[in-house]
Amino acid sequence: MPDPQPPALLSNRPRDDSRRMLHQAVDLGLDFTSGELRDHRVLRHATVGQLIDRLAGPIPHTGTSDDQLMDSLAEIARWSISQADPRYLAFPDTGDSIAALAADIVATFLNQNLIAFDRSAPAASVIEAQLIIWLRELIGYKAAPLTAYQGLASLGGMWTSGGNMSNHIAIAAALAHTYPEVRHSGLRAIPEQPVILLAGGVEHFSYLAAAQALGLGTDGLLWADATPDFTSDPASIAGLLASPPPGKRIFMVVGVAGNCRTTGIDDLQALADLCAQHGVWFHVDACHGGSLLFSEKLKVQLAGIERADSVALDPHKGLFVSYPSSYALFRDPAVLGHFARYPDRADDPDCLDLGLITPFYGSRGFESLKLWALMKHQGTDGIGRLVEARQATYQRMVDLLERTGSFRLLGTSDFYRCAFVFLPDQVAHALQEAYSRPELHGAVRALVSRYTAAFADRLYRSGTVVFDLFALQDLADRIGLGTTAKYQVMGMCVGHPHIPDDIERGIERAILDHSRELTAAMLTDAHALLTTAAPPDSGAAADVTGPAGW
User: pTM for the whole thing?
Assistant: First the structure.
């Protein structure tokens, strides 16, 4: 006789059985984080096809035992990548705050639906409202204490699933604020084409996605120049605000507080001045830079953010909170009232049904408990110390990259992330002749891109160190072949406040070992390039592979 099907629901199981299974799940998570399930590598590399062969299967018609299920979960963990590993240097999303992890477990058990207060999420609604007020205070927005709550229209913020959605919602709010008639008559009621002004080369993919999804179209984006430091150029933005293309009206300017490729931070004060001068909505994308708000020392880099009409924050980037965790905040709390399903309830102090003014969302979970728990556990001062420690660790890792002599950094970085190509000093010296021959520039760019991608791929497949990989222009002309063409570049992003000395030495050894292997081959190709009668004038591939490439 086969074993009977194990009970599916907590209410049908002995408490000790449930406790044992859930303790096993926590132990599995701890074994994954420690590296035991990953063979103490950042990941055990496998291709798409290999993982499909390993993990795919027919629909299960009969169930398995508790232990068999845990074995299956462990197998999934063995083939997962750990962003909490200090050798994971592709993105800052460590998600390893103990308070947030504990809150995530509790929130799963509570299973609250933040769409409504009554019969749905009473305590959770209050906690999320409190968190939104705390975030407004950190930005520098006016924020009355929750004890003076005046209704949904007084909150001025909402949780979202990510920066992509936070930016979507900010755009929708700016459009509804500038063109109130859109709510009833749609975009056809607007006599001119509404456009968003932002700098090319430092933008997040969400703006193009939002323009297409919200009916603005790709022509609804107006591109300003970026500076050599990968920030928005205020002079270029000023010129376009003063003289927009015929038939177009700029209704939003995007300032970037930490772009997703080099974390360059815009001059937010200058952009705020321009937007105030021209009466244009100012949005600050602080999905990366928002963590600096917790540090009294570092938040000066965000001066002017309090003047933004809207701000996007991503705690799951750089604040040690697991996915998903993002927020859209508004200087004027009433702007979210444009989306109220029942406008008469937006000013009712007895109504805390958050789902009434959360565009794009209906039912959703108690994700905000994670950040609330982190702030309660560490306080803003404790989080600030973590952010500052991470910055010091990042600077040490940049020094590590530079002393290897294997890389050329593109531009400067304001915090926790930089972009670079694989270009060892001896290869750069061997290519000096090619710099004086314009017909070879395309081939040199292709050579640098090819070996940069090969270096990043070797590290990734080995599971020892993970850098990001994406395409980027050399806006500062650090390579010396112009600023317009794109290269395949690596990105190093330090999400960890502390990297132990032994792990740092291991990272350096892995870099040097792979560098030695590739440098010899790259030198051979460089000499061949110089002696070939007609080298191909090929540009860099524009592959999109890592998170920043999105």
Answer: 0.94
